[in-house]
């Protein structure tokens, strides 16, 4: 096959390549950098899983040659494996290498907000505006990620199962969601694409490690960082089948811009492609995938969102209204993806047939694809695998040579895994939480003084709602996972805090029978589990709460009702005629009511059952159950009518759901009295908190919006508003405190913008603090801000609009093509068009909005004041070279803190006029300043950040002109601190010639009320093959009379006639052409006929297509207008489509051809040619189970092991445990072992989620409650269930233990702190007391032997009353061959070489192979200059200890065999021994 290098073409070359692609139909071939005479030869694997496979030599310059050689070896099956995304090892079936095994496609995991350490939502990270912090977050995530990965050949890059090693970290989301109602708004850094691009590149660089010197100029990476969800993922609206609309400028200036810096640097290895369509073409095969690959240093690996590739060929998902699917089958869909240089792949894994089917289609030449094109589609994927060391030559242990990150990997590292226990990781997590907080208002009330009385109210004070992609289990650390209430109590003192939930308390009366709704007090479970609600005519007792319900208003028209009778939630059943009761026990509040603070009741809140309480015209309310979709599918739009049910009172006075769903809008409006209730307010919102105004010194009111209530993945919000009760709570509490001359502070807990105008304008509100989800230290950081331990430095990275009138209104075009439902089926609370992904047309983001704004982009206050001076800017620059802007910033306040310096630019003379950005963020820096300190802040400006998309060149340009550069504290003009003008010598928007056909979409710079559609599938396939990024793919469709689209700088000289390619599937109408403005006198008018669908077979594929046909209509140019003008295409009816224009020029009678740009043919179409994871956690068996298949560690005949839930006797042992900082998690097990032949048996203990999340070790429990840790590892069994795999030497009582002990003499910054923490958490080493470890104390022989027994899980027999504590230890050590009788004096200090002997014997006893030949011993010891000091007895043990990483020697190459170890060193060594044993147990 030919040697083809990946073509690296900069963004300034885009138009050249696009034009060349349209002309030649293929990429240009670049000669290989390795000549034929000096062709690189690669070694091949000898034996092992990948026997015969070429191996990479570790030289980055040989990458392309290696990939060519590799695909020579695999044949077409190789590239097909990666294009289909077939994960895990693949066995070749064809050609000379048939039967050989090759690595599968990249395996992937979502690590959006962390791996082990829990970081803030991405919106919170963005609000830090701190590039260095993002790098540090990436570094933490990268170190944690690699410690979970395996790198040994054949074991790395495995998807699923017990030995998964997921090479890709999908984390740095580049989605540019212009509308804050988008459900996944929390998953984006910023609404500014350049800012997002900087932060994405910084975080991806830190995570991947490409900035580390060992990376060899960014070639090697420790994990493949993937962004999500390139290229357009605007909202959750009809998520999987959506059709988002975005004009050409929006696609190139906005939607795709954020991902490109990371691709260009190589920090981003790939992307998860987005669901749905943009302008009618599935995103997974969009030509924008070509753009990403063109700009990527090593190409772009891609993987679809969950089963997103299957949707391309599934019936009734991506149909166009004529065909019921986009591609005829999976294979043809994959061919189209390959032409777009994208990959398929299913999370559940592909089948071998996917590969062979694709090979067959390529060999047939479907869609004209060639073998070389398949290879080039797969090349970026293999490039990333090479960068991970997967193809490297290996040493004898299978470890890849020349891969610089191998020593950090799970299967190679000798140190504990990198995780949240590391102090530096905790420090970064705390800074991230702190810097995510934004101060929105302050009249100097903040910071608060500690010790005064606080009236805290609002449900969000005592709840903690995590975002979808936060780390699954919040780390169990001090100050981590707390509710805000608890953190405030800890900060201010429990005696100084009062709390009230703040919600209304109501009663309900049935309108049908005029009886009161009440808990069934006569039910046996009335006061506990609850029962079905009933109505009663009895008057409730004065002290009764049976008829009282507290309302928790979540916003988005939803609420939960809490029965005050039993503190349980009212259910929201999903079935017909279902009982409605006060029986739901969802955990919401987290802090114990006594506030003694020994524990919290969890670290995560769940949303209770939600109900829709809807007002009726007669003043009553109706309650709808099951009115919200809670899953990820995106079908929330139609959920309400299809699944919502009225709650009504049946003939027996009981509350039930209706016998059928609402069904239709008409049915929902028909509400009988049995479905109506009269609501009475017994206690108003905030009444309890307001009553505290006379006693307490200030109020803190918490309001917000849960991230998963009508929000998050699979759901969009319907409104900016929080629950109306939140606003009432603020108004009532702040008014009461203001009446007493006291202050009210509002805390907003939401991971997306909410409506704040009323609160900001409330004169009784003194301060407002905003915090999105902040990761593990969210509440602690918030309390630090409130009480002055940290001065807030966050700034908003999105615009906070004052009202819903900022957004485009809903219309019939929000329903995707091919979907049979209409607007009448959509939940009536939705009133916004969520499919408009074009900020220019919709007027959204700070760059384009004219709407009223409460808080502008970049806004945020400080506890200090800053002044700006001496703005220094060059007088003129080119549009090609970066330049520096400097300004002096002074901290004029009294608080040490940081300022975010923001530099904006505007070009008021842009050719795009009012459709150009009002301003753009050009650069930003965050600078720390002491009080009174002045610093010169230098901002590096790359003119490309100011580039716009020249729709006539089809390329980015920096427009020439005089730009105003503004230093500001936000994007608002009112916040500009200094400004100067700068002349940029750039380019002008090109003039559009009429000598060639013009696709209207490609050349449009502005639009009004239009949507876009694919012109034809044949054209799309042909242009993808031509590698055309811009290629006449789309047509423009009108939404109403008066819709228009504008083309800039068209030279009309000589225009006589104009032909248009048009279509209409409605009633037809007229389209007119205007110069300079849409209401000028028309130059031409076309009558658009109704066009019929056409059916045809694509000429180079065995694929039949049915789609809307186009017709050509021609009109005379009615004016002699000449020169250059903007052209406006104006539609005078809805549902008119236009593809292209073709002008006849009067002077030359030149007809440039048909109006489209389709290079293919479509003989029967009027438009042709040219018209264009894991399994469920295991549960402890209730009755016990027996497994005859357990094997002991020596390979002896299997023992019979029975694992049962602990009996009462076992429970009694648990109660006798009396150790500080040690807690039993879950129920104990009773293990019986029969017929044990060897020393140990490997046993699996099933665990529930609580045990899996919280246990640090498993221990044997002796009669007196003594604990003996046993070797164990949390893993998965063959069914994917979580289990503890443990090494046992006896039956008895076992329990999961959480050990969290701190020692006053262990400095958190000491090198040994992490080792002591881990050894202590594993119970391998104890302190000399509950509070002291004595880390520098020397280690005795008895202590060493005790620790060695601990690491084996061996319990010494109890010492007699007249014995020393160590006598039983010595006996056990002799019994288990850790020492000879009398070999060691118990209180003598243990030497390093003797410790090596003991520990290697322990490893050998556990089954770890420690045998070495004499030659191997010499090899492992040869680098140590004092090896001759080893005794003959200790020499083999020390060599084995060095090989296994137990001992490492001193930095100057000494073993120091006769020296002793401190207790801190012992902790480090024993953790390494434990990790070696644990490797045997990982299933």
Automatic annotation (TrEMBL):
<dbReference type="InterPro" id="IPR013783">
    <property type="entry name" value="Ig-like_fold"/>
</dbReference>
<dbReference type="GO" id="GO:0016787">
    <property type="term" value="F:hydrolase activity"/>
</dbReference>
<keyword id="KW-0378">Hydrolase</keyword>
<dbReference type="Pfam" id="PF00395">
    <property type="entry name" value="SLH"/>
</dbReference>
<dbReference type="InterPro" id="IPR017853">
    <property type="entry name" value="GH"/>
</dbReference>
<dbReference type="InterPro" id="IPR050288">
    <property type="entry name" value="Cellulose_deg_GH3"/>
</dbReference>
<feature type="domain" description="SLH">
    <location>
        <begin position="1299"/>
        <end position="1413"/>
    </location>
</feature>
<dbReference type="InterPro" id="IPR006584">
    <property type="entry name" value="Cellulose-bd_IV"/>
</dbReference>
<dbReference type="InterPro" id="IPR036962">
    <property type="entry name" value="Glyco_hydro_3_N_sf"/>
</dbReference>
<dbReference type="InterPro" id="IPR008979">
    <property type="entry name" value="Galactose-bd-like_sf"/>
</dbReference>
<dbReference type="InterPro" id="IPR026891">
    <property type="entry name" value="Fn3-like"/>
</dbReference>
<dbReference type="Pfam" id="PF01915">
    <property type="entry name" value="Glyco_hydro_3_C"/>
</dbReference>
<protein>
    <submittedName>
        <fullName>Glycoside hydrolase family 3 C-terminal domain-containing protein</fullName>
    </submittedName>
</protein>
<dbReference type="InterPro" id="IPR002772">
    <property type="entry name" value="Glyco_hydro_3_C"/>
</dbReference>
<dbReference type="InterPro" id="IPR036881">
    <property type="entry name" value="Glyco_hydro_3_C_sf"/>
</dbReference>
<keyword id="KW-0732">Signal</keyword>
<comment type="similarity">
    <text>Belongs to the glycosyl hydrolase 3 family.</text>
</comment>
<feature type="signal peptide">
    <location>
        <begin position="1"/>
        <end position="36"/>
    </location>
</feature>
<dbReference type="InterPro" id="IPR005084">
    <property type="entry name" value="CBM6"/>
</dbReference>
<dbReference type="InterPro" id="IPR001119">
    <property type="entry name" value="SLH_dom"/>
</dbReference>
<dbReference type="Pfam" id="PF03422">
    <property type="entry name" value="CBM_6"/>
</dbReference>
<dbReference type="Pfam" id="PF14310">
    <property type="entry name" value="Fn3-like"/>
</dbReference>
<feature type="compositionally biased region" description="Low complexity">
    <location>
        <begin position="1151"/>
        <end position="1170"/>
    </location>
</feature>
<feature type="region of interest" description="Disordered">
    <location>
        <begin position="1147"/>
        <end position="1213"/>
    </location>
</feature>
<feature type="domain" description="SLH">
    <location>
        <begin position="1421"/>
        <end position="1483"/>
    </location>
</feature>
